[in-house]
Protein 1
Amino acid sequence: MTATTTSQKPARLWQRWPLLGYILRRLGTSVLLMLGVTMVTFVLTALVPGDPVAAALGEGAASNPATVAAYVEEHGLDKSIPERYLIYLAALLQGDLGTSIKTGRPVATELATAVPATVEIALCAIVVSLAVGLALGTIAAHHRGRATDQVLRVVSLLGLSVPTFWLAIMAYHTFFLRLGVAPGAGRLDPTFTPPPTVTGLYTVDFILGGDPVGFFDALAHLALPVLVLSLFTIGLLTRFIRAAVLEVLDTDYIRAARAKGLPRRRVIGAYVLRGASLPILTVVGVAFGVLLSGTVLVEAVFAWPGLGTYAFNSAINLDLPGVMGVGLVVGVIYLVINFAVDLLYGVLDPRVRLA
Amino acid sequence: MIDTAFSLETGDPGRNYVPTGNMMLHAVYDTLLTFEGSEEDEPIPSLATMEKNEDATSFTFTLAEGRTFSDGSTVNADDVVFSLTRVQGMTESKANFLMNGITVEKVDDMTITLTTEDPSLELPAIVTNPALSILNSELVQDNGGTTGDDDAAEDFLGSASAGSGPYLLDSMDITSRAVLVPNPEYNGEYAPGFERIVIRNVTESATQLINLQGGDSHLAVDLNGAQVAELGEDFTVTSKPSAQTIFLLVNQNEEVGQVTADPKFAEAVRYALNYEELLQLAGEGSVQATGVIPPMFTGALDSGVAEDLERSKTALEESGYAGETITLQFPSDNPVGGVEFTPVAERVQAQLKNAGITVELAPAPFASQIEPYVGGQEAFSMWYWGPDFADSSSFLPFGPGEKVGLRAGWEADADPEIAELVSTAANATSVEEREQAMREYATAMQEEGPFVPLIVPGINLASSATVTNVQNNTNWTLDIPLLQPAG
């Protein structure tokens, strides 16, 4: 018997750890996409009609050529768009999102206050939506064609169709003014002082600060905006989950599981929902992105000082650094969500990470 | 709890030039002169009394004895000189222009003079502006304040008080709320009425209404005419015309508006409109604009133009108008005093159609509409104007060759007589002379100017029964120091 030796190259890191390779590939794509987002945001903002100098200085100071010249030079407005973009990008790499024209404060500082306020309601809304949507969608699918299914389909359609602004006003009018079961507008009762900032999420920060009274007040103020925001996503998720579950219910392996006499709860939990998880994950990711970037109307009604309010104020004041900051944050939000969804795809489905 | 749609940008008086900032800072800081409640005709002493020379070029301010800042130190002339020259040094501040052409000098510890090269009867009104608040100079300088362009006290002033007003700034978040508490060292005329005042950012007026009705707030600043009409007897509404004027601009530059450039066309438009019908769109507190100067200021006319279709028709024929379609541009996303521009524009369109003038509407966002307006590139448009400070001289820019006049392509030599009236009003040295000149200017503008004043929107301050003495003033919208609890 002779021994044969073959010279085998050592497997590369991503060959041994396919999931790691998958993550690196997705990260690379995300960086490129982020660069694209900064470019699109910058160019579109630069092309917005209007005079940012007059907006910043006011008409009085803007009529003084020396002041205008100093301002233009200081903010690099005399440079070409590509030059300004490169300057912007260089600053961005150092975490500098520019200075708000309206307030003179760093945009990053202002976003650091606004983003957590929106994240707090959006997170709660997506959790509520997913829980309710999952339950209603699965029930509707299991009762396909029957009265329960018809009712749930109509209800979910209503959730999708009712204008959010109208719903917010009506909910506030009903639950606060008429029934008196909801607190007033804002993130906290006026008698409360905001908690020391750790995460920017008041509920979390109150817990971290050991203040249960503050926590419950913050939670109570969250309830109505979250309810209003959730109704749309509940409608969306219910319909989508119903369709996804129906598709899985028609597969052979589910029929086999049923034929073997497995309990219905186990079939749903272990096989149906797992089988439908990829499309559900996709739509949850999209819905979360929509929630984070589309709260402006709800924030206006409930006096919620979040990203939507900041975006609106920046736009009407022609605060271009503010507008770019919001564009960038929204872009990052979508990229992070997509990245997270892609990662979960890889975890849930080996075919994805090995492809 | 006061609900208002925030325009708050800073807690630094010298850098502030927005309504919410004025409202808040007026409670924290004193100025040399002030206005009594909603009176805006004549400034009264606040930190100082004032005397002027005959030429109205030198104004001597004598500080009241013993007035103190919130740290207990006494207000003196050095504080005044520092505060006013600090604003002069901040060239990028929106409020900087208020100090243009004014020289500040200390006479002694309690006396200061402000001098100008030309007569400046508006100076007393200018120094009532909260941007010209008197700061504790030592405290501010210790925290980065200077009189050059390198002042760095804004952050400090956003979290602390350096004033002598009845309240202290307890905390401020420019996106959500500002909290005021009483100043224990205050020794002025208006003792704080509340232990805590919260000014909350509520952008949506419908939410302000619900908050007020539900008891979550005690005062709403931005309700429109229809909303205040919903309030029952449990609420008090203080309504009065604001200092804003909504007007039509008829461009006199032939290169911009070939048809509109004939002055007879502006006359045809002016007499084609039914102002009472337009006013129906404006709500509580609003009045017809009787001229370019709103009713609370010196020189305002007693009555406005009335519809006269015959006169309009004659003027239209003389203008050479031959049925061309005229485009009416206006900002569609920027209601003023609760008045939405789109329905007003639609009604103007309908009324002009009755008079034989064909108009197409061109609404656009404020941000994109403002540049062509300011650049004088709009042939026919609807805009608004508010005073830079509470004085009728803020409406002289409508004159030929002036800031707003030029936006209508109206050069100084287009109407030398009105240009002369502007100069006379600006350089008047006595109140009587000024009043007459302002009135003549306003009358001439109504007869020959390229502007058609339409509406002075109302301002409505709605309060619950728990608050009394709610008063509006152009400078600070709501006079917080005057507020008192009921009973």
Protein 2
Amino acid sequence: MRPFEYVRAATVEDAVTGGDRFIAGGTNLVDLMKHGIERPERLVDVTRLELASIEEADGGGLRIGSQVTNSALANDARVRERYPVLSKALLSGATQQLRNKASTGGNFLQRTRCYYFYDTARRCNKREPGSGCDALDGFNRIHAILGASEHCIATHPSDMAVAMVALDAELLTRKSDGSTRRVKAEALHQLPGDTPHHEHVLEPGELITHVDLPPLPDGARHVYRKARDRASYAFALVSVAVVLVTDGDAITEARVALGGVAPKPWRAHRAEAALKGARVDRDVFRRAAEAELEDARGHGDNDFKIPLATRLIASALAEAAGLDAGDDR
Amino acid sequence: MKLQIDGQDHDLGDLDPRTTLLDALRERLGLMGTKKGCDHGQCGACTVLVNGRRINSCLALAVMHEGDAITTVAGLEADDGTPSALQEAFMEHDAFQCGYCTAGQLCSATSLLREVKRGEPSVLTPMGAELSLSELSDDEIRERMSGNLCRCGAYANIVAAVRQAAEAES
């Protein structure tokens, strides 16, 4: 690990004026520093800031401090009752040890687990812009089928962020000049295009201070499903977050987000458009899923993700609608 | 720079901020109870409790834990050296072979019992369900212990030991 200077921030103002790299849980950053992939010269510790509580927000939502740990967020009784998809997504990720340390803000900003990004002997446009991508013709079982480019096919690994995107969460940030802004969770990450090293819209030194969860319509049904290579402690091959509101047989609102399939938590707008106003019906769910995957492209080893994602979306919708879980098991 | 480990204060002087909590324990203080396995947060051998909650000490920077109460496997027994009920259950069920992962398994399972007691869910816990130590299923134990690998494959006996300790505490 390269030497770095360590500073502990006591206030948010201290933090954003104290440097341009922050450390919270460190569960991903410290690992990347050991690999020599992250080489910060100065790290500002933001874990002692007063950002570790979950508060009721105006209008019935919740405001989550960015330093709330993943386990504290998953365990919160209000989250369990009002946003169960978020609790389930959090508990589907990592292990209890990691969730106890990982923060809400840091979970959004964790980096891909692409093997070629981690292996410094391989080419990676994300790690070394312009060097090439060894995943394209390599072992790409875990890689993206949506939103990728010829420069990068890495996926965003988070479960939490998938639920946050389905819940229309918004991030509050503070910049070093003291200004604040709101960034929709869905708009936080960028697609790789020809600059896969630019992963999100935050500026250097811009700190996530809170995440706002807006209230949901009454009667919303929540489902989080995750397909992976072992029963626990594995990243998603495909995950699906669904928030569904129905009125009798009619779908009044459907929100669908996907993990494990794209360089960012993927809001399934095409599926949602196909669902809105439609009937609760297995064929409707399957066609909505197929619409979302229409432009999906496999790279060989990950071709299986296209039918898997299609079935998992349809099955998650069926579960949310109270039909039985379908035939994906 | 001071760390509080198993109830005792230790002075680490001017510690290089690169030092992980795991390396501070083993290399700087000579406290060898906590084990280094993968050193990348994948195996759980280095699990310790920080303010009562389990973490991977290999992914923690020691400087970030100044003022925290750190418990290693050496702090699980009673003050007079009596093993905890969980430690007794591990011995009774032969919940190890080589023993290298055991310190991490014990810290992790100690924390697991407290989490269940506090009603904290796993991904398998149905929404709104009440948890009880006496009715903790093997699937719940396996899910909650998934961050601790055992290359010898003593899992069946580890689950049995944790279940016995859970029943004893309920």
